[in-house]
Design goal:
By secondary structure, the protein is an alpha+beta fold. The chain has four helices and eight strands, in the order αββββββββααα.
């Protein structure tokens, strides 16, 4: 169930980043994280994480801004980023980690180049994902398999057949 919640959450993020605005906003109460991608950079699933890689090591096409109480707290451009997420134990929040690499952090006085920068926070879990907490085994048995589950089932069937 947790993997399904993560999968659906990452699809929401991906849809925002691939949509017209090319942005996803993580609303963590007092903190808001604005993640955006410029250009036509591709987003890829790698396990249970979403990865964004710039097409060139010199390009920084991922932008992250963080506001606390509507006051800017972080402004950075990165060459690549990974989004990881896990539901909390009570199923009410999604714990998110953004791992930025090859970045420039824009400060008031200067720009600071950094090899990497992790940013972790929790956001309320969207309602449809929270509903998965109440799913029964029969609900899963009746549901159509996701492409990820279908591929795993096909791989298992191939191994058994050999």
């Amino acid at each position: 169930m947790a993997d399904d919640q993560v999968d659906l959450f990452l699809k929401l993020v991906r849809d925002g980043l691939e949509g017209a605005s090319r942005m996803y906003v993580f609303n963590a109460g007092r903190d808001k994280y604005f993640l955006s991608v410029s250009g036509n950079e591709s987003l890829q699933y790698k396990g249970l994480r979403l990865a964004i890689e710039s097409s060139s090591p010199l390009k920084r096409t991922v932008h992250l801004a963080h506001d606390r109480d509507n006051v800017p707290a972080l402004d950075a451009d990165a060459g690549s980023m990974r989004v990881r997420a896990r539901p909390d134990l009570n199923g009410q929040n999604m714990n998110v980690t953004l791992e930025l690499s090859n970045l420039v952090q824009h400060e008031q006085d200067e720009d600071i180049q950094r090899a990497g920068f992790p940013q972790s926070f929790s956001v309320p879990m969207p309602g449809p994902l929270r509903e998965l907490n109440h799913a029964t085994p029969q609900d899963y048995a009746d549901a159509a398999p996701t492409p990820r589950h279908a591929a795993a089932n096909d791989a298992r069937a191939d191994r058994v057949a050999k």
